[in-house]
Amino acid sequence: MVVSKSGGTLETTVAYESAKKLLQEHFGKEDVSERFIAMTDASSEKSNLRRIVDSGDIKISGYVHDDVGGRFSILDDATIFTLAFAGMSKADVKKLLESSLNAQKEFLNPNIDENIALQLACFNVKSRQNGKIKHFVEYFGDIFSGAVLWEKQMKNESLKAMISTDTYIGPGYLPYNAEADLDAANTDSFYTFVYVKTDDKIMKADLTGVLAAYGAQHPIAVIELPSLSVENVAKFIELKHFETLYTGNILRRTKGEVTPMDIAMPEVLQPNVEIYKKEVI
Length: 281
What we know:
The protein is built from ten helices and seven strands. It is an alpha/beta fold. Helix 4 runs parallel beside helix 9 and helix 5 crosses helix 9. The protein is globular.
């Protein structure tokens, strides 16, 4: 599967061309169009990948919808197709999407006491206003290895230079990060810790110690997932979506920058990424 909204992402393009060449050599023929599926913008004017589909070089395609920013499209067609291909049942896919919709309603609630996404955003904004410019999001558990890459990209592309975000997998990062993290000279950082609720005594002791040590020196937020059920995963995805959007929107509003309702929020755009893409292409 080749996934790129713009159809011009360098890494995706190179990977597709390399895979295409390998398949051509393996099958001994030029036409391997039936071996690929493309997910991209519907418009051939916007997407080079759509033009490849239109030319017949890829037979099957779906959409990264025009009103969804790439990094906010985790539950778009590409993911749904992949989950189905990987064997997720239709019932579980339905649960995933329904939970996503329910979470969106919850995180659109203007009452901050009932909106965790808004609470996290306010934590980020307050930390930034207090001179904390580096946000470290520490996930505990190797199962989050994909989440750290997703959140780092989403936060940095959305918040741009307002807050710099980095992500790590714990507890493995502690031996080489804690020395700098807990240095008295480190006064510009704040932290969010993400983990799944556990009864493991060692992990609980590790988490308790980390939260106590970091919380004594830095602003910290904690996200505990009850489990990794389909419903909780969907809610967590939306939590991160809304936290990111709220953070950027509130920070801009503190400077008097208000986005009109008929214009896309800067947090879903990436004009600076497009600058380098055009130069590469």
